[in-house]
Amino acid sequence: MLKKAEPKSLRWQRNKYSPLARQLDIFGSAAALMFYLWWDSVFKNDSTLHRKRRAQWLVNTLLDLGPTFIKIGQALSTRADLLPLEYVEALGQLQDRVPEFSDIQAIALIESELGNSIHALYRDFDRLPIAAASLGQVHKARLHTGEDVVVKVQRPGLEKLFKLDFQALGKLVRFCRRYLAWTRKYELEAIYSEFFNLLYQEIDYIQEGKNAERFATNFSDYPRILVPKVYWRYTTTKILTADYLPGIKVNDRKTIEACGLDPKKINQMGICCYLKQLLLDGFFQADPHPGNMAVSQDGSLIFYDFGMMAELKSLAKDQMIRTFFAVLKKDTDEVLDTLIDMGLIVPVADMTPVRRLLTFILDKFTEKPIDIKAFSQMSTEAYAMFEQQPFRLPAQMTFILKSLTTLDGIARALDPEYNPVAAAQPFIKSITISQGKGTLIGELARQARDFVKYKLRQPNPTQIVIRRLEERIERGELQLRVRTVESDRVLKRINLAIKSLIYACCTGFTLIGGVMLLSLPGYSGLGVAILTLSGIWFLALLRSLLILGVKEKFDKFTEK
């Protein structure tokens, strides 16, 4: 009789996994990725097929490294603004390719946590999981009282693996901070701490249950927002039992339309729901990928996963509200002021590139579908802006942006003609007519009424064009500046190339000198010292070539 082949064991599934072995695996994978990027930049391997192979290697590597890195890959899969399309598409597979663990392990953990046999706990229990995620998997079951439920089971050994990753990535972040000065402005340590704080919360299913109940309370007056009920008798830190609420995957446009539902209305509901979470509640789902949301047969929106929730504490809600309505009004100066107030942009002497980029984004992407090719119009300004590095994202804001970019991707999958401003109209209308108590509602209502007045007083298209032309002339945004930026770019690349040549010469000279001294009697010690110096020069050469390759890649991208 033929036996089914056992699936290949991944690195993170080892029974005995020492901190040193884990660090070597993580650092080795990171070094391999950096080497591949350097190699491709030097030898110009940028064909679509080659990028797909590299992206698939990255996906397999993340799967092999385990849950922490799968989470990172899932976050990157929504960033089409940062990664090539081939990488975004490949990383999107991580939502569906997370390997499940055996039903024997799942049942053993349930019985251990709940202190009873599986048959005593549930009338029926499906051994085959209906979903597998990076941190756990979900089985359908039925209670003895008749309710259909889902049982979320945490992956065995997950907490131990997180501790190993916490140590390894902590060393990597400290290495970057110490030896890569350009990474300091990104506050990697704060992002790293925030990321692991959220991950540790996500593997505490009691906290997830409390989050679900708090979320349900926030939307208790919204019958079209559904949240599964938690059964606390069958819930521990590693087991979560909740109502079974089946639905259509939120980005499955064909099925949604086949059921007679309107994707535009679902988009409106989703956008308004998130605006309420961000601007009113200050408590939002930080991981809204398509596996965490669904649409019921009657068009209601179902939320499933409440492990990764975040609160707006350090960012003042009134500043978020000001920014939101400034975006709606396309007020570049107001948007820039609020971003500076929130610490998202560091003021520099010349803010022209930032202002131009914000104006471009507000003009192009707030009332029409995103056209990625349009970014080429801003290549020079974007390059100048990144050269100055005025952006500084606080750790908390990275999760807000992750949520918004993921939600935006879902909305555009549902409706290619998705219009963010139009989708937000019901929320704006509800706030405009509200007379709620408290300063927050008052600020929202005031901003909403100001926005309505702005729309009524809005000038005609000809007046807008003339006004913008005048503003550009006043700011001195001439083509001469663009050429200056391009010249600076070329000079910096030439400077890097000259440094690389010097490093190469030093490497060669010391290498030859060391080899010659080794062959002479009595000079072997000096020969070893010079060869060591040659190795140092070689590392400096590699670093210089890597930076040069990255700059050339970025220049090539901005020139397209």
UniProtKB/TrEMBL annotation:
The chain crosses the membrane at residues 20-39, 501-520, 526-550. GO terms for molecular function: kinase activity. Residues 93-336 form the ABC1 atypical kinase-like domain. Pfam families: ABC1. Keywords: Kinase, Membrane, Transferase, Transmembrane, Transmembrane helix. CDD domains: ABC1_ADCK3-like (cd05121). InterPro entries: ABC1_dom, Kinase-like_dom_sf, UbiB_kinase. The keyword Transmembrane applies. Belongs to the protein kinase superfamily. ADCK protein kinase family. This is AarF/ABC1/UbiB kinase family protein. It comes from Funiculus sociatus GB2-A5.
